[in-house]
Design goal:
The chain is an alpha+beta fold. It is 36% helix and 28% strand. Helix 1 runs antiparallel to helix 2 (39-47) and helix 2 (39-47) packs across helix 3.
Amino acid sequence: MGAAMNELDLQLIEPSESLRDEYIGFVNEIHEAGDPYIANEWEEVHRDFSAFVRRLRNHALGVDLPEGWIPASSYWLVRQGRVVGACGLRHALTEFLRDFGGHVTYGVRPSERRKGYATFMLRAMMNKSKTMGMDRVLLTCDARNVTSAKVIMKCGGLLDSESFSPAAGRVTRRYWIDL
């Protein structure tokens, strides 16, 4: 286990152009670790960071959403000026998201893992979900991702199902957390 996390040092903020270099460093580190789910974002942040931040802010408002998408709010977890994680909250579910994706996403910079950041972000997203009037949230994870499953269960997640997800190309576990 890494150094103990002090929640007073953490800020959960909306995407900001002022953190350009920090966020690009975060994305680069995850990309270098081989995370396939960040590939599109990696290209976008390097191509036009301002447009990337604008897109995230618009999506939170339901503006300029691609067909079939629903509004989703994005947040960055910052500790002492360093982006250590990112998370998101989808405001509703589609059939696709019921299979793969769920309401909440989170990711932690590989060099900052095992410090409690994922749990902090999931709890923050649960609080934001309550504020939006939700009474429960769905989370999904790769069946082989024991660490993510532990975070979800630590926050009250109950396994609902496990099956092959065509969208993910793998076995996916689906957990519900009652708020």
